[in-house]
Design a protein that fits this description.
Radius of gyration: 15 Å
Distance between the termini: 28 Å
Order of helices and strands: HHEEEEEHHEEEE
Largest sheet: 7 strands, antiparallel
Length: 161
């Protein structure tokens, strides 16, 4: 219920295109953050952005549907990975990278399964991609959702085709 209230205030139909597809996706995203990372976060206002400069960014496309990405500083990625896999990482390495990729892939996989079960829509996931210090841009509208945890800020980027 709290997630629904949060999303309805962020995702009004006047502010965001395709809100009927974005709200179920973000509802699952917030639930997965609570489930796998922790509930001690503060989401900031969603910002429409045609392109987003990135630090360490993992993105994944769901074919003919949407592109999502997690962007963060390396130290934030280390803390995020520690929470996600419940292990201690001290440096930004391939284990941290794999953990962030796995979280995004897991989330998108759960979304694809939900869409199949609830709406008989079959979605295909592309492999996650890593980009560092580039600009993420799409031809479709894109939205940046900053999420602040005590260990750092995560920028969640979503573009719906």
């Amino acid at each position: 219920e709290l997630v629904n209230k949060l999303l309805s205030s962020f995702c009004s139909k006047e502010n965001i295109q395709d809100s009927e597809r974005i709200i179920p996706y973000l509802t699952l995203f917030f639930n997965n953050l609570v489930r796998f990372i922790g509930e001690d976060f503060t989401p900031l206002e969603i910002i429409p952005m045609p392109e987003v400069p990135t630090n360490f960014c993992v993105s994944q496309q769901i074919t003919d549907s949407l592109l999502s990405a997690l962007d963060m500083e390396p130290q934030t990625a280390i803390a995020f990975a520690c929470k996600y896999v419940d292990e201690e990482f001290t440096e930004f390495d391939e284990y941290v990278l794999a953990s962030v990729e796995d979280f995004l892939n897991l989330h998108n996989g759960l979304y694809a399964v939900n869409m199949s079960n609830e709406h008989s829509v079959e979605l295909t996931l592309e492999p996650p991609m890593v980009q560092e210090h580039t600009t993420l841009s799409t031809d479709a509208p894109a939205y940046l959702l900053p999420i602040v945890y005590p260990f750092g800020r995560i920028n969640f980027i979503l573009s719906v085709f």
